[in-house]
Amino acid sequence: MIMVDTSVWIDYFNGNDNPYTQKLDEILVLDIVVIGDIILTEILQGFRRDEDFKHAKAVLAALDCFELCGRENAIKSAENFRSLRKMGITVRKTTDIIIGTFCIINNLPLLFADHDFTPLKEHLGLKSAL
After folding, report:
1. Which of 58, 91, 97, 130 has the fewest CB atoms within 10 Å of its CB?
2. DSSP code of residue 49
3. Which residue in 100, 97, 111 sits closest to 28, CA to CA?
4. Domains of the chain and CATH, by start
5. For the segment 11-67, what is each residue's pLDDT rounded down to a tens digit?
């Protein structure tokens, strides 16, 4: 299983061809793509046109969806944020810390294009799917 972050899905639905969307095409065929509830929200809220929203919702409904922020992950996410901040690194978005921490705890590789995940990979053991 591979979790795919919002940053890749946005490029994918916008038709952008890059290494991340190419990898997503590859892993979608293998049926190993999963999504998180927060990621689902971020993706779907970005669509302006109703027909694009409906299409994306249908595509994403086929994926297993995990609840990303229970009590354990909330506490561990705060600890990870604080650990990085002590190193002088600030992750800009709380959602990225939550997503990354969920993947670390569950040993799930994450396919991401957002550079906020890089410190989690370099310092906390997040596995990149690329």
Report:
1. 58
2. S
3. 111
4. 2-124 (3.40.50.1010)
5. 999 999 999 999 999 999 987 999 999 999 999 999 999 999 999 999 999 999 999
- Cα dihedral: 81, 10, 34, 49 (round 10): 120
Who's near 103: CB < 8 A, 6+ residues apart?
A: 3, 109, 110, 126, 127
Residue 69 CA to residue 10 CA, distance in Å, equals 22
- Is the pLDDT at 74 greater than 80? The verdict is yes
CA distances from 128 to 1, 105, 117 (A): 12, 14, 9
Cα–Cα dist 130/18, whole Å: 11
Pair of tokens at residue 128: 């990149």
What's the whole-model pTM score? 0.93
Average pLDDT of the residues of the chain: 96
Q: What is the mean pLDDT of residues 93-110?
A: 97
